Amino acid sequence: MDCNQVVLTGRIAEMDALRYTPAGLPLMAFRIGHVSEQIEAGFKRKVECEIPAIAMGDPAKVVAGWKAGDSIKAAGFLARKSQHSQQLVLHLNRIELIERG
User: Fold this and answer.
1) Contact by Cβ (8 Å): 59, 76
2) What confidence score (pLDDT) does residue 13 get?
């Protein structure tokens, strides 16, 4: 089993400052706020969540120019925040700006 894919639309809820890894890669950490209606067991359900996300490399530089409130579409995979944490973080492979907030 090796499928680990997430696609999510939402608004940038919070952004950290652009920083660099020890290897010199740009890294941008932020949170994506998502609100939608989903069907579960045949019933509509309102879904609200806030997901921590990171972008590395060139996408991090692009995201650094955006701001809280901007609407985005993000795709990537889930991984633990660190070896000693069970908290999940969305690591982005693709991200696009849908609308300025």
Assistant:
1) no
2) 97
CA–CA distance, 88 with 79 (Å, rounded to integer): 5
Is the pLDDT reported for residue 1 higher than 90? Answer: no
Instruction: Look at residue 63 and give its three-state secondary structure.
Output: helix
CATH of domain 6-92: 2.40.50.140
pLDDT of residue 75 exceeding 90: yes
Alpha helices in the chain (DSSP H): 58-63
For the record, the structure tokens of 90 come out as 């969305």
State how far the Cα of 36 lies from the Cα of 10, in Å rounded to an integer: 9
Alpha carbons 68 and 15: distance in angstroms, whole number: 7
Predicted structure pTM score: 0.91
The per-residue DSSP string of 37-66 comes to EEEETTEEEEEEEEEEEEEESHHHHHHTT-
